[in-house]
Amino acid sequence: MRRDFRDRSEERNELDERLIDIARVAKVVKGGRRFSFRVTVVVGDNKGQVGLGIGKARGVPEAIRKGTERAKKDMHRITLAGKTIPHEVTAKFGGALVLLRPASPGTGVIAGGPVRAVLEAAGVRDILTKSLGSANVLNVARATLRGLESLKRGEVEAIHRGKEAAALMPFWERKRHAQ
After folding, report:
1. Who wins on pLDDT, 85 or 175?
2. Which of 40, 56, 69, 80 is found 20 to 30 A from 21 (Cα to Cα)?
3. Cβ contacts of 35 within 8 Å, gap of 6 or more
4. CATH number of the domain residue 61 falls in
5. Matching Gene3D superfamilies, A to Z (predicted)?
């Protein structure tokens, strides 16, 4: 059975790549300091898949290329409810704490910096967020990704919390579901 690899490469070209952070880092050696760059890249297909990658190199373009490759290898499928998330979630990574809350259609992405980049690359279009604790860009991005990975379908989360599915639905969905 022959596989057609062209389909896969075309799929990869449709990914949304976002550069979150560029940092110049130094390694102290015998003759002084050796400088290099660390970049943080988010890659997503705007349909519920997102990945985070870190690239390190002596030059910025090479670091971006490495970060993008790592992000593509580390893609995660997330659960979406239309253009928002199915339920509220809180995630922590290091000192960064991120709160993600579903929003009604038309709200937009109410988020800042790395949280916005991760959510938009994942395909979330209506969400309310708050970043607390550390403002470290890398940890905030990882906390956001951890929160998105922990999302479950609304019905599954309702059972887990011991509530009815309607009680966990956002208010704009409850009205539509009741009819």
Report:
1. 85
2. 80
3. 24, 25, 26, 27, 58
4. 3.30.160.20
5. 3.30.160.20, 3.30.230.10
